[in-house]
Amino acid sequence: MHRGIRSEIGYREGFDNPFMFLQFSFLEASKVNGVYRIDPISMLFAKIPETLKLKLGTDNLYYMIYRDAIPWTYQFFRRESAQLSSLAAYTFFTRINKRLCPYLIRWHWTFIILLDFAERPFYELAQRLIYYHYNVLIPQTQDLQVLNTINPRLWLEVDLTRVFIIALVTCHIAFVLFAMLHAICGQYFYFPFLTENVELHIGPRDKSSIYSGGGTAWQEEKK
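^ thats the sequence. predicted structure below, dont judge the formating
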């Protein structure tokens, strides 16, 4: 009884959502009851005569489609769509419909995208430093403690690495909070290289618009 209710609920949800219905049809329907394959591709292969199945080896083709092709294709599009969704939203709002999107939002949104590319080397550097600190230096200090020996240079390297990691993380958090504060207050800020590239994409601020936000003194200097 409980299983029947759950099946009915899943059936209704599948028909309410077209995407979920297609996903269920091609990926999940073949698992119903563990015996019968009622998905569209199975129905198509079921129409092939047995003699033709033996000659062409359609069973191998069927399992190749279901075990390899469909899962790989589904995961590929799911992964790519997740990565491209933010860029597609940015393009739609700030490029295609930029007349409807305030300059303040377009400026900070573009800055975030450029910052994501610029901060990746620092993020990877922090990861490598953390790995080196905890998986190389710390085990060496533990070995020295076991041997009851002292290596001042090793301890200096441990301290310097820790300080550098803390400084890197602190500077990054401070810069993000600095940028967020300006965005919340409707202001802009100048950062070398990034600000120029942002304004190359979206252009200068329109002073006549009440939605343009705060001042951009560096644009005045260029004029």
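Residues 2-84 form one domain.
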